[in-house]
Amino acid sequence: LVRERFNAELRHLHEKTGRTTVLVTHSIREAVWLADRVAVLRGGRIVEVLDTRGEGRVSAYTDGLEAHLRTVLGTGDSTRVRSDVPAARSAGWLLPLLAVGLALLGWQLGAAALNQPFLLPTPGAVWQEAARTAPALAEAFGVTVRTALLGTLLGALGGVLIGYPLAKWRALERFLSPFVVASQSTPIVVLAPLLVSWLGFGFLPAVVVSALSALYPIMVATLVGVRELEATFHELFSTLRASWWQRLTRLELPGALPVMLGGLRLAASLALIGAVVWEFVDPNQKGLGLAVQVAGVYQNKAAQFAAIALLIGYGVLVYALITGLERRVMRRRGR
To answer: Could you state, in order of their start, the residue ranges of all structural domains in the chain?
Structure first.
């Protein structure tokens, strides 16, 4: 019914103005039916302009104008060209691996030239130290990861719950803007003494610090993503008399999801930083932050580098997982 009404309005506009009307839909057939000309674009350039006046609406892709369009655009939907390049995707993973390999080689050469293990140990020495203290490092890694993951989850939830109302009501954004700016202008380390006096030491304040670190990127990403939705989509949902819940679940959150996932990548990194910062403050949190401190006291640079390598590995893994989810969402939106 919506398509028939839209087509009727376009035909009325065409009869009233006498101007060419082009309708771009999922299938090229409606465009051929209503347009006087069809411009074929490939790679952002017009490669051919076809005169469709008098062609009428055709019924299949196998004859007439649509057969020609199919030949020009390729197989599949005549309005979409899809090229699968698995070789390029596999080659894309080689570049990061090459960068890591070159970094390790430079590290090895620099450490060998410096010849000061107390300043810069070799990658081999770091690996040996990590293998020797593997149980202790694994336990510390579990503490840090648990804090960072829970902080990321709570920070993301809080960011969405705060960012969505701010996106919908600009007056609320202006009203709360001093508090939002103040919360991000105050370093977490400065708040540590207050959090200790309010919450004490332990797991709870560590999660609070991690969540506060992750809150702001998700909040901003939600605000920007919801506001970037085109007004035509909102007009369509208003025409269909969509409820608030339908608009939220079928338009606003799916439309803002790519931007929100981009914010989640940054939020996960900041949540990890917040968790480690608190471990420097709280000796009861026996995570990788404390491991780095203890190794520094004993001048064990290899142990410090091993703990830092685990932190980097966690950050890279989470970043890769969120990036993969973001690409999957974008492919689904493309389909």
So the answer is: 2-73, 84-115, 116-334
The model's pLDDT over 251-288, given as tens digits with 9 standing for 90+, comes to: 988 888 889 998 999 999 999 999 998 888 887 788 88
pTM of the entire structure?
A: 0.68
Using the structure block, give the residue that is written with the tokens 């004490």.
200
The CA-based dihedral angle spanning residues 94, 99, 105, 108, taken in that order and rounded to the nearest 10 degrees: -130
The total of other beta-carbon atoms located within 10 Å of residue 311's CB is 22
Q: Torsion over CA of 58, 64, 66 and 69, rounded to 10 degrees?
A: -160
Residue 96 structure tokens: 């990061």
Task: Report the pLDDT averaged over residues 289-312.
Answer: 88
Contact 12, 5 (CB under 8 A): no
**CATH number for the domain formed by residue range(s) 116-334:** 1.10.3720.10
The string of pLDDT tens digits covering residues 176-192 is 888 888 877 777 777 77
**One-character DSSP codes across 309-326:** HHHHHHHHHHHHHHHHHH
